[in-house]
Write a structure and sequence with these properties.
Elements (H helix, E strand, L loop, with lengths): L1 E7 L6 H20 L6 E7 L4 E3 L4 E3 L2 E2 L8 E4 L6 H7 L1 H12 L3 E4 L4 H5 L8 E2 L6 H7 L4 E2 L5 E4 L2 E4 L5 H12 L2 H10 L24 H12 L7 H7 L4 H12 L3 H19 L4 H7 L5 H12 L3 H8 L12
Parallel strand pairs: 1-2, 1-6, 2-5, 6-7, 7-11, 8-9
Antiparallel strand pairs: 3-4, 10-11
Helix pairs in contact: 1-6, 1-7, 6-7, 11-14
């Protein structure tokens, strides 16, 4: 029987990612037995804390003593507080325990910002990882040598699985169910818990935020110029010259400060503005395209889909105010 440990870190942990993971894996185990098999998983919730109160004290978790667990086959790290530095500092013993378990043969799966605890072990250095798109800046600040891929819903490294943000953890749990049980069991769980198994990206949910707290005044000026001249054709050679620097130095500093090349940044700002306009639903695709400085509809569609995972038409159909309501009943 495989030993699964869902850990409870000190400080804030997301209740849904702990309880939801426990419930789905438990249901998969029950279904597996009904199909005539022996139980496959023994699932525990454990930590160095004896109680963790959450959500204003309305909920509390009473984990098992993690020091009594000598070996686990799968270790699951839930979403944690956005006070990343504090979380890492307060969970030094847990971080060491995670590293030791991996070195002893355990696999590790992280949910949303739980990736910060795993990254603090050093096990992700030089590897790919995902987390909530809203935590990307903080993650890159703390772990610059990790290949963060926030468009990915799930990333896979040898014995390490990470996922994107919030309730996308449901897709990670289905992935684990299929890996440890089989495809029919994962399909069963997807139907029981009504989880869309086809999701592979969190890109449609990404809200691009123009991070300007990096402290590079020149880059801030460049960002402001880009944002105020979206409909114009921007020459980065000329912009670098206006800012009294070489194009090479301009690109280097821009990438270091924002995590994007100037061209990528321009594309992301254009697409973010286009998304907001499409959500309002009052303008045609071509009107939106021209407003953000594109004259080639093919180029606009390609860039838009690359960043969001959807075509402009499909994005508007899904997210505009004119999209079909979530309920057809009357209020």
């Amino acid at each position: 029987m495989k030993q699964v440990t869902i850990i409870v870190p000190k400080g804030y942990a997301n209740l849904s990612s702990i309880a939801g993971t426990f419930q789905i894996l438990g249901r998969a185990n029950d279904y597996w037995q009904k199909m005539g098999h022996q139980p496959l998983l023994e699932i525990r919730i454990a930590g160095f804390v004896t109680e963790l109160k959450l959500d204003g004290g309305f909920f509390s978790i009473h984990p098992a003593n993690i020091t009594e667990i000598k070996k686990t086959d799968l270790l699951i790290i839930p979403s944690v507080s956005h006070e990343y530095d504090t979380v890492i500092k307060e969970n030094a013993a847990l971080i060491n325990w995670i590293r030791e378990q991996y070195e002893a043969g355990a696999e590790i799966a992280t949910i949303c910002t739980g990736a910060f605890l795993l990254a603090a072990t050093g096990l992700l250095e030089g590897k790919t990882c995902s987390t909530h798109w809203n935590a990307a800046a903080g993650f890159r600040r703390l772990f610059p040598n990790i290949d963060l891929q926030i468009d990915k819903l799930i990333t896979v490294e040898p014995g390490i699985y990470t996922n994107g943000g919030a309730y996308s953890f449901l897709n990670l749990v289905l992935f684990l169910v299929e890996k440890y049980f089989d495809r029919p069991t994962a399909i069963y769980c997807s139907k029981i818990f009504q989880i869309d198994m086809s999701r592979t990206s969190q890109s449609p949910f990404f809200i691009f935020q123009t991070q300007k707290d990096h402290g590079d005044e020149m880059v801030c000026k460049a960002q402001t110029y880009i944002e105020e001249n979206l409909s114009e054709k921007i020459s980065f050679e000329e912009l670098a010259s206006k800012l009294a620097t070489s194009r090479r130095n301009f690109d280097r500093r821009f990438i270091k400060a924002t995590g994007n090349t100037p061209v990528e940044y321009l594309q992301r700002v254009k697409v973010e503005v286009a998304k907001r306009t499409l959500e309002k639903g009052r303008k045609s695709i071509f009107e939106v395209m021209y407003e953000v400085g594109y004259t080639d509809d093919k180029a606009f569609r390609e860039v838009f889909k690359k960043i969001t995972g959807l075509s402009p038409l499909n994005y508007r159909a899904k997210y505009s105010k004119e999209a079909a309501p979530m309920t057809t009943g009357t209020v």
